[in-house]
Amino acid sequence: MKEIYLHSLKPGQKCIIRSLNSSGIEGQRLLDMGFIRGTELKVVRNAPFADPIEILIRGCNISIRRDEASLIGVEII
């Protein structure tokens, strides 16, 4: 199965995190915000030029940049 990345999802789509392709400070920051393998999330909205992306994860709305979202592999549910 081809891996899909979070930045390619449309508002309203739900998914489960399957991989986090980042390390160092950026990877740790995403982990600290709750982007952990197996966690379910929903894309709430994209900004007018698609950056940032608002995500509902673990009951919190979080906005991340599109380039950060491109590091998160997901499975659509």
Tell me about this structure:
This protein is an alpha+beta fold. It has a single domain, classed as Roll (SH3 type barrels). 17% of the residues lie in helices and 40% in strands. The chain is built from 2 helices and 6 strands, in the order ββαβββαβ. A 6-stranded antiparallel sheet has the order 1-6-2-3-4-5. Strand 4 (53-57) and strand 5 form a beta hairpin. The longest helix has 9 residues, at 24-32. The chain is globular. The mean pLDDT is 90. It comes from Oceanotoga teriensis. InterPro entries: Fe-transptr_FeoA-like, FeoA, FeoA_core_dom, Transcriptional_repressor_C. This is Ferrous iron transport protein A. It holds the Pfam family FeoA. One of its GO terms (molecular function) is transition metal ion binding.
> What value does the Rg take, in angstroms?
11 Å
What is the highest CATH level, the class?
Answer: Mainly Beta
CATH superfamily: Ferrous iron transport protein A (FeoA)
Number of helical runs?
2
Shape from CA axes?
globular
Compressed to H and E, one letter per element, the order equals EEHEEEHE
Number of domains: 1
Could you provide a short overview of the structure?
The chain contains 2 helices and 6 strands. By secondary structure, the protein is an alpha+beta fold.
